[in-house]
Design a protein that fits this description.
Blueprint (H helix, E strand, L loop, with lengths): L1 E2 L4 E6 L10 E3 L5 H7 L22 E7 L10 E7 L6 E5 L2 E6 L6 E4 L8 E6 L2 H11 L21 E3 L2 E3 L9 E7 L1 E13 L2 E12 L5 E7 L2 E7 L5 E9 L15 E8 L4 E9 L4 E4 L2 E2 L2 E2 L2 E4 L2 E3 L1 E6 L11 H13 L4 E4 L8 H10 L2 E5 L11 H18 L5 E5 L4 H7 L2 H5 L6 H15 L4 E3 L8 H4 L10 E4 L1 H4 L13 E5 L7 H7 L1 E2 L2 E2 L10 H5 L6 H9 L9 H24 L7 E4 L22 H9 L3 E8 L2 E8 L5 E11 L4 E11 L3 E6 L13 E7 L2 E6 L28
Helix pairs in contact: 3-4, 5-8, 14-15
């Protein structure tokens, strides 16, 4: 294999190209924006207000050119192919002027045979403008509705490339994943799909392969894992072949916090009588995954079960970690996912408006014990079910499920984000006038592909979705059934309303805050000065360029007002918004966890950012942990105390997400802020493994004489929670740092 990383030139084409160099060096993998920035032809679009001034690039076409003099002609019987792992998006490939292939899907690979064209002088990849192409497709499809006024749903390109309420609208083009030259003879493994399952203590690996042939003669297909081997002879020209390997009593793979993550090397080879022709290697894990969607007295469950054990999903939603997705390397993936693991997270949902991530992402999840919920890439829109989009959608689904199924971390495949909800509630039915909207993909095609290629992976129709909703008339976002998105909080109501519902599985909810102070200083400036030193910073054009949420600053202010107040000074406002984000999300997580097993999971929106922006992320673009990350680490801790009030009074819930009973003395006190004891109570408590225990609090503990100067303190072993009786803005808290005494100072629940 020869990588085609170097030697590329990039040429802008079409109207407006005269404003750019006629040609410049290009990096592969990469995109035109990163090449233009590197050459100094445009300013960094992440900086200041540059992104909004670069929309003129949308209508340009682009040409990548590389000399092929270093690629030798094939020897006798040898096949030579150029493989593009990812082309963004509307590409035509030619060798010495002869068209050899084309692509219209960012999420698929492309392989072109150049055997008969070598030796050759030039490889050319021409990219058509994504804007013009998508606009034309949207017109042909009669403009199916979506959450945004862009044509992202008309084509198979990353939806967020056209902008989102946390991301820039840049509409990239380029060779975004590796390009290589591959040489082979006789036969090769075109696809390997391992289906791993455990039955009666036996690990079973069923391997299905697709073969390409260049010459005649039988070959041997073999598989080896954990010292076991199986092989089968494959007749000349046979396109598909299968075999099975069994491993007795395999060590089971578990999500983090539930056990270890043993991985076994699986090697599949294709050989003739003389040598190995091709080989495929992955590490796999033995585990079972199911979703319990049975009805109960509350509605319909949605509970992940791994190896027969119900798991509370302590999750986060994942967006691409850089808008320029070619820049996300294995080290960056691992750093971000280690940050997730270190916050006690055990599930990462790959959201449907991004990409199918690189192998390094899923490999890191395998190693770290992070379950992966993978959306099929549909988001917040109606989609055509006919013509080229339909065929591309199925080919994309099959290719990516086959690629990802080997990973034991892959637990859920989901038919899309908010598509069913949008169809039901967002006025699409009138706009569509009976036309298709993508329901067939989610309800029929995607589950069929999953059942065929990944039977050991759970499938969900959408997020949110109520199982059986179409038959029963239950709303797709009903909190009592299946998965639920809570966006009334943040958009319209106070975060204390998180406790209004007890959802079965909260797959999206979140709260905004700006990135870290230093990140603002690095990327946002006014007249050359960091925005942090500019009067009225949050209302400047540059700040609002990096605040994509509709009326986001107003929502931040209105959300803070009853709890922290709204500081006038920008530095104080910045910190208060971050603290508010931490309080709000921790409040929700505490509520959801305290209702296990009725509520079986929470997936916070969102873990990460794709550029420097005010957003719902816990970790900003420069990889800095916001206060929310620390709040998640506390709220998702294996053992947690949650204080709540309800119709039946005050209570404390002990959440024990470990394999051992939690037995200790529960101590509860009402104190003054300087540590004066006003009331106390204690009792012996035993919380069984993987369970929660709710305990009422006596009236003396929760009846303050001075609500602004007292706090409730509850401790169980090493765990401790402090609940204020007044809002933080009203409490008589002293800014003086406590420096003496052994008693820890009180803090508001969810603070850091």
């Amino acid at each position: 294999m020869t990588r085609l990383d170097s030697g590329w030139l990039l040429h802008p084409l079409g109207e407006g190209s005269a404003l750019l160099p006629e040609r410049l060096d290009a990096q592969v993998p990469g995109c035109v924006h990163t090449d233009l920035v590197r050459a100094g032809a445009i300013a960094d679009p992440y900086l200041d207000t540059n992104a909004s001034g670069q929309a003129w690039l949308f209508n340009l076409d682009w040409r990548y050119v590389r000399d092929l003099a270093d690629i030798e002609a094939p020897t006798d019987g040898e096949r030579v192919e150029i493989v593009f792992d990812g082309l963004d998006t509307f590409a035509e490939i030619s060798v010495d002027g002869r068209v050899v292939g084309s692509s219209a899907n960012m999420h698929r690979a492309l392989r072109v045979d150049v055997t008969d064209l070598l030796p050759a002088r030039e490889l050319r990849v021409d990219f058509a403008s994504p804007t013009r192409t998508a606009d034309a497709e949207a017109e042909r499809q009669r403009h199916r509705p979506s959450a945004y006024p862009t044509p992202f749903n008309a084509v198979r390109k990353m939806a967020a490339s056209f902008g989102w309420d946390w991301g820039p609208d840049l509409r990239t083009s380029g060779i975004w994943r590796p390009a290589t030259v591959e040489r082979w003879r006789h036969a090769r493994l075109a696809e390997v799909v391992p289906r791993v399952r455990v039955e009666d203590g036996v690990g079973i690996v069923e391997i299905t392969t697709s073969l390409d042939w260049a010459s005649t003669g039988e070959v041997t297909l073999a598989a080896e894992i954990a010292g076991r081997r199986a092989e089968v002879r494959v007749a000349n020209g046979q396109r598909r072949a299968s075999l099975t390997v069994q491993v007795d009593d395999p060590a089971l793979w578990w999500p983090v916090g539930y056990g270890e993550q043993p991985l076994e090397a699986l090697r599949v080879t294709l050989s003739d009588d003389d040598s190995t022709l091709d080989a495929w290697e992955r590490r796999v894990g033995f585990r079972t995954v199911e979703v319990d969607r049975s009805p109960d007295e509350f509605g319909t469950r949605f509970t992940l079960t791994v190896n027969g054990v119900p798991v509370f999903a302590k999750g986060v939603n994942w967006i691409p970690d850089d808008h320029f997705v070619s820049r996300i390397d294995a080290d960056r993936y691992r750093r971000r996912l280690v940050q997730a693991r270190d916050a006690h997270i055990n599930l990462v949902r790959v959201w449907g408006g991004g990409i199918y991530e690189a192998e390094a992402f899923y490999e890191a999840c395998d190693e770290l014990g992070l379950l992966v919920w993978q959306d099929f890439l549909l988001a917040c829109a109606a989609y055509d079910e006919a013509g080229p989009l339909r065929s591309e959608m199925e080919a994309e689904a099959r290719e990516n499920v086959a690629r990802l199924v080997a990973h034991p971390s892959l637990a859920v495949l989901n038919g899309g984000n908010e598509n069913v909800w949008g169809y039901e509630d967002w006025g699409w039915k009138d706009l569509l006038e009976g036309r298709s909207w993508g329901g067939w993909y989610a309800a029929e095609m995607f589950p069929a592909v999953t059942a065929e290629l990944a039977p050991g992976v759970a499938y969900s129709v959408n997020s949110p979705y109520s199982p059986g909703a179409s038959a029963t008339g239950v709303h797709p976002n009903d909190p009592d059934h299946g998965t639920h998105h809570q966006w009334e909080v943040w958009n319209r109501i106070d975060y204390t309303h998180y406790r209004d519902d007890i959802p079965r599985f909260a797959s999206e909810f979140g709260y905004q805050a700006p990135p870290a102070w230093r990140t603002l200083q690095d990327w946002l400036h006014v007249d050359g000065q960091p925005i942090t030193s500019v009067p009225g910073a949050k209302e400047t054009a540059v700040f609002l360029e990096h605040q994509k949420a509709e009326d986001g600053n107003r929502k931040l202010d209105e959300g803070m007002a009853p709890h922290l107040g709204v500081p006038a000074d920008f530095a104080d406002w910045h910190w208060a918004t971050q603290l508010q984000q931490a309080h709000a999300v921790a409040y929700a997580v505490d509520h959801y966890r305290s209702h296990w097993p009725r509520t079986a999971g929470s997936i916070v929106w969102q873990l990460n950012d794709c550029w420097p922006v005010t957003s719902w992320a816990a970790i900003d673009y420069e990889e800095r942990r916001k206060p929310l990350w620390y709040a998640l680490r506390q709220a998702y801790a294996p053992r947690r105390l949650v204080v709540a009030t309800g119709d039946d009074g005050w209570s404390v819930t002990a959440v024990n997400d470990t394999d051992h009973a939690w037995e200790d003395v529960l101590q509860a006190r009402r104190e003054t802020f300087d540590g004066g004891l006003l009331a106390a109570d204690s009792s012996q408590v035993a919380v069984p493994a993987r369970s929660v225990l709710r305990l009422p609090l006596t009236a003396a503990l929760v009846a303050p004489g001075d609500a602004q100067g007292e706090a409730l303190v509850v401790e169980l072993g090493a765990e401790r929670v402090v609940e204020l009786f007044a809002e933080v803005k009203d409490a008589h808290l002293s800014p003086t740092r406590r420096t003496s005494g052994s008693r820890r100072p009180p803090r508001a629940t969810g603070s850091t």
